[in-house]
Amino acid sequence: MFDRRNKIPLVRRVLDFFWPSMGFKRSTRYLGYRLARLPGTSYSLAAGFAFGAAVSFTPFVGLHFILGGLFAWIFRANILASAIGTAVGNPWTFPFIWTATYHLGYWLLGWDAEGKSGFSAGTMDQFFHNLMENGWASVTEIFTNVIFPMIVGSVPFFIIVWILFYYPLNILIRNFHMKRAEALQASLFRREQEAKALSEAEDSRKEGVQ
Questions:
Q1: Of 165, 185, 180, 148, nearest to 37 (Cα)?
Q2: Range list of β-strands (E), the chain
Q3: Quick one: pLDDT band at residue 24, thresholds 50, 70, 90?
Q4: Which of 121, 105, 125 is nearest to 113 (CA)?
């Protein structure tokens, strides 16, 4: 019933993921309207989106939908809103997110510039170099020197990002719901007035005939 009449080709959908055809500003606005129109309270929608955005700062790529939904379920937020919130993590933002969490993790752990096991904390390409050169035998070293610091660094970002998204969205969604309720009441009142006017006109016409 709600499917598109003309299906969007897979290639077009993939390209839209990297570069929205409607532009980033319009796509962001559309995302906001889509979020505000979901059923639920301003808390559940704002908190759900905030959890989705926050988990995007964790290095568990591929599990963001599940993690966002899990946090939303635990805190009684909107699970669908959390899925929408994971859009914060995308091919345009991931390089900045990974670099920030990586370096913050090293700083919080108090590791020196060379990190552990001689692994350079200043270059992310060492991760791919080790993987290509040593294969999966270096997975333990990669986790210790890359993934673990990113997990540590993602914790402060998780808290900060959740706060930054939740409070503004809670206010915006609440205002949106209030304006929509006021518009609905105004529409109902207008219809009642029109029905009343028609009824009075009909009564006047009947009296005139008599």
A1: 180
A2: none
A3: very low
A4: 121
